Amino acid sequence: MPHWEPLYPIVVYPVIVVAIAALLWFARRIAVAPKTGNPLLLMLRAVVLLGLVSLLLNPIDRRETVLPPRPPAVALLVDCSQSMGLGQGESRIDQVKRTIGAVTQGIQKERDIRFPMFRFGARLAKVPGLSELSATDDTSLLSDALQKLPSRVADHQTQAVVLFSDGAVDKADQLVELATAYRELGIPVHAMLPPQQDLRGDIAITELSVPPRVAKGDQATIRAVIESRGYDNERAIVSIRPANRPRSKPLASLPITLTEGATSCELVVTADPALGELAIDVPVDAGEAVAKNNRVPFQLTEKDRTLNVLYMEGTSAQESRWLQNALHVDSDIKCVAMTVNNQYAQRPSLQRIDDPYRGFPTTRAELFQYDVVICSDISFQAFTPEQIDWTVELVDRRGGGFVMIGGYTSFGAGGWDRTPWEGLIPFDMTGRRDFLNQGFQVVVPEQAQSHPIWNLLDDPARNRAALAAMPPFGGTNLISRVKPAATMLGQTRTPLSRVGVMPVFACESFGRGRTFAMSTDTTYGWGSRFEREWGEGDNRYYQKFWRNVVRWLAENSQASQKRLTLRVDQVIYSPDESIQLVVEAFDKEFKPTTEYRVTAQLVASLGDDDSSPDGVNQSSGSDATVVALDAKPTAEHYTATIPAVLPGDSDDRSSPMQTAYLVVEAWSADQKVARGSQQIQLLHRSNEWLRPQAKPDRLQAVVEAGGGRMVSSKDDLDALLRSVEIAPGEVLIHQLPLWDHWMLWTLLLSLLAIDWILRRRGV
């Protein structure tokens, strides 16, 4: 529609018209020639001048276009701090996601409305969908999010902001001021609190220490630290169960009294490889904020580990069956028995009972396949010097076990005080090369009765009775005393001729391994009743005794391991801690070596790769940082300090406890020769988990200042979002100046041309 938009005040234009009329009148009055006063010419000039005046009135053609209504928008601001991950069954963040998804999908099916979604915690970020929302941030910076949000929604279509949070946010004093600014912008701030749960606090297993290697039947001590908040002076039961049977009867349990802080405890379990992975747990309380950190899996024994025992008996092949049968009761112990062709020959030779053509191992590698070596009544002349040295190395360097049993050719009587085995034997054989055929009984000192070797029965009273019922022996080698570092496990009840009261059983640690000795025999000569009658009408205590001996001796043995072993200092690590890693590598001859290049990496999971050496799975984390270990040639191992943090997206900060794997590889040039892994637990400590209670009062203050309201349910949220009105479409105004038109200028020029022609013709 045409209209005028004068460039000057309207009063100017009448003045101009009057001035033009006066000018034309004056021009006619002073005209000299008759043609200059011609009324036709004056009329043409008046029309031209009035046309120019009309241009000064600025004629405009104005047209309006009404656009379709644009869909309104409601910004959804979701708290993604770790406190939103709390809750039993369903976490707060999951409740929020479920509610948002159900409500927004239903509304968008019926009307055109947008719901831009933002997450906040440590920072504000726009997210494309609900799947991007996870409670991973260790802080909740709501004030920072409210400051930055307007720049993200500055499209004039955002009509409201809905905040989803538990109220555990920072800088509560600034929130009211920020919410007030939103109200002044015409954008009300609403809030929805996740469905309330009566969360009291948290109970968590924060430290766990387990023996590095145990064998079946060993009594393993598990040490743990339990931290709690909100449960001061309350009782809880710490239990250990098979990891895949969380409801089974506990293998061990211990009641403790919780404090506002850390409580230490110890549990003892009997190792059994058949149980597989174990888990220590504390029951989840109905008001507990986090359930995931109440249970920690750990590996106590290696599956399918068989202990290999080399048993050499000098009495007779027939007598070896008693000890051999005792060990074979345990399916995880394999015993190879040997005897000598002539016990008292100058150079007796050993031969396997099941294969007479094979004797004592002739190579270091063959001997190192055994965990324990038992020598019963055999002269040192049956061995080469190399075989004796290898046995010492088996115990000293590879953590194996060694047993010497008494007899006419044992200890000093067999010349062992003149060999390197003298260092292995826990008895002091100085000046003693004799023996005594005299009956006696053994008494186990009270302080030694708790030793694992004497653990015959679970009931302490019955166990003491079994030890007291040990049958008498018929003779013994004479021993001066036990060595200073050794432990005496048994002695004669009464004095013997020539020596008085004498030690009979003893054990000690030697290098990485352990040794055991009994001065008497375990066969028909001196120990006939011991091997046949120690039991309950049978020899069950005798059999359990030898299984205990073997398993205690083999606790640190590396014979059943691969060419790579690794040890870490604990099971649970916090992100600010470092993993202290020690790795031992062995060459093809099972000698310790530091010639390999050894690397380690921490990954979130292990994948399946049958081609990996040693049958260890490959890691699935390709972005893990690979750490090169430092070789320590003097100590014959490698060490490294590795940060207890997973790389990138592998680090699941939404979980208070995360399983990780330390993967170690040994390389010779470019060839991988060995691989091993160790499972650990990463503990994500956060103040967000230490204050689980929601704070609705902070959200209420924000809502009141922001001109919004609290939303208490899914139906309330649905009603709120449906109440958002659709704003009318924008009106676009198009203005076109009419004076800028070719027809107008053609008319003016034509009038001027007519005026010029008429004057030239003398009109």
From TrEMBL:
<dbReference type="InterPro" id="IPR029062">
    <property type="entry name" value="Class_I_gatase-like"/>
</dbReference>
<feature type="transmembrane region" description="Helical">
    <location>
        <begin position="6"/>
        <end position="27"/>
    </location>
</feature>
<keyword id="KW-0472">Membrane</keyword>
<keyword id="KW-1133">Transmembrane helix</keyword>
<feature type="domain" description="Putative glutamine amidotransferase">
    <location>
        <begin position="358"/>
        <end position="554"/>
    </location>
</feature>
<dbReference type="Pfam" id="PF07090">
    <property type="entry name" value="GATase1_like"/>
</dbReference>
<dbReference type="InterPro" id="IPR010768">
    <property type="entry name" value="GATase1-like"/>
</dbReference>
<keyword id="KW-0812">Transmembrane</keyword>
<dbReference type="InterPro" id="IPR036465">
    <property type="entry name" value="vWFA_dom_sf"/>
</dbReference>
<feature type="transmembrane region" description="Helical">
    <location>
        <begin position="39"/>
        <end position="57"/>
    </location>
</feature>
<protein>
    <recommendedName>
        <fullName>Putative glutamine amidotransferase domain-containing protein</fullName>
    </recommendedName>
</protein>
